[in-house]
Amino acid sequence: MTMMNNSSDDQSPSYLYKLANKYHDYKDGVFTVRAGGGAAVAPMTWFFPRHAEIKVGETVKWINPTAVGEPHTITFIMDNNTATDFAAPFVMSGSANLTSAVPNANAEAVVMPGPNGSSIVVAANIRSINPTIIDANGKVTYLPPNGNYTMDGTEKYVNSGWMWPAGQSPPGFPPINSFSVKFTKEGTYNYMCEVHPWMAGQVVVK
C-alpha cells in the first residue's frame, strides 16, 4: 500500500494528521497501527495513528506497510538504562581472528585495542534487532519473529525487533513484519522507533 503522493506537503503536519485519521483501524479488540509507509521516493517515518486508545485486555498490532525495505521498531523503554543502539562495542578476549562469513566480501570488522590486552569489537546488538523483553528483575527473554506479548506494565524494555515490510527482510535478519501487544493494566505507554528515534507513539489503556 502506498501512502505517498508527489506533493511537497507529504510530511506536513496537516497531511500526516489526515493520514492518521484515514488509517484508523480498530476491530474485535485489536487496534492496528501502521509503522511507516510510502515508497522509494520518500518513505514515511511516522506512526499511523500515533495515538491508540484501547481497553484493558485489548491488543495493539503494529505492521510495516512501506513499499520498500525500510525497517522500524516498536520499542517501549520504561527504564532509561535499557535504551539500546543497533550496534555496540564488546570486549573480545584472546587473539581470535574475525573473518567474514561471506567469501570474498568487501567487509572487515571494526576492532580496536581494549583493556588488558583484549580487543573491542563493534557488532550488531541482538536486543535491538530481535524481539526482546527485559522484565522488572532484569531477566532478558527473546520472542520469536512476529511476536505476541502480554504486557503487565512492570517491564523495563519491550522491543519488536526490526520490522520489515512483508517479504523484504534482508538475508540474515529475522523475518519480522508485525508485533502485537496485549495490555493488561491501565496506563499510558509511550514508545518509539529505535531506527528513527523521532518516530514516537502512545498507547492509552483505560
Extract low-pLDDT stretches: 1-9
Secondary-structure content class? mainly beta
Largest β-sheet summary:
6 strands, mixed
CA radius of gyration:
19 Å
The SSE string, one letter per element, is HEEEEEEEEEHEEEEEEE
Counting DSSP E segments of at least 2 residues, the number of strands comes to: 16
Gross geometry: globular
Please name the CATH topology of the largest domain: Immunoglobulin-like
How far apart are the first and last residues' alpha carbons, in Å? 31 Å
Work out the helix count: 2
Topology:
Elements: H1 13-22, E1 25-27, E2 30-37, E3 44-48, E4 51-54, E5 59-63, E6 75-77, E7 87-92, E8 110-113, E9 119-124, H2 126-129, E10 132-134, E11 140-142, E12 148-151, E13 157-159, E14 178-183, E15 187-192, E16 200-205
Parallel strand pairs: 2-5, 4-16, 12-14
Antiparallel strand pairs: 1-2, 2-3, 5-14, 6-13, 7-9, 8-9, 10-11, 10-13, 15-16
Describe this structure in a few short sentences:
Helices cover 7% and strands 36% of the residues.
Describe the structure.
- The relative contact order is 0.21.
- This protein is mainly β.
- It is globular.
- Mean pLDDT is 89; it is low at 1-9.
- 7% of the residues lie in helices and 36% in strands.
Task: Give a quick set of tags describing it.
single chain; 206 residues; mainly beta; Immunoglobulin-like; 2 domains; 6-stranded mixed beta sheet; 4-stranded antiparallel beta sheet; 2 helices; 7% helix; globular; disordered N terminus
